[in-house]
Every structure is written in C-alpha cells, then in structure tokens.
Amino acid sequence: HKDLSTNQWSGACIDMANDIAGKLGAKVEMLESTWGNQILDLQADKVDLAFAVNPTPERSLVIDFSTPILVHSFTVITKKGFAKPQTWS
After folding, report:
1. 10, 16, 22, 78: most buried by Cβ count inside 10 Å?
2. Between β-strands 2-3 and 8-9, what pairing exists: parallel, antiparallel or unpaired?
3. 3: which strand partners?
C-alpha cells in the first residue's frame, strides 16, 4: 500500500523486504513499477527481489522462485444468485 499523502509504502511485502535486508546488512530501495513490468525489471537488473509474484511455468523459464511464503486464493464474492459458475479459457 502506498500512502499518497506521505509517498511511503507499507505492508507485509515491505516488512519482509526490510527483514531480509536486515539479515543481509543491505538497504531497501523501492522501485515503483507495474505488474506487467515486474519480470522485465528482474531480468534487466533493476531489482534484486520482487514480492507477490505468482509462479507460472512460463515465468519459471526466465526467473527463479523461492518456496512459497504465503498461499492465498484470490476470489470474487457476489450476492447469492448473481453470478453463475463459468469455465474461463
């Protein structure tokens, strides 16, 4: 989460980055990017770590993934009867 009034980031991923940096004696520097550019940023050495990236077979061909640190199923909720189950392709 980015607080637009202070321009400061916060949240679980920021906390994890700071914990990792503390153990390595490193400093965290944030790079604001987009979901679409996160893999490109890793490949271009703009960042050393990226958080909250879902592993896919295609991504695994070009970047390395750690073991999962959080497993979360993202879902959408609606009022009862609003949406019928579908198969997405």
Report:
1. 16
2. antiparallel
3. 8
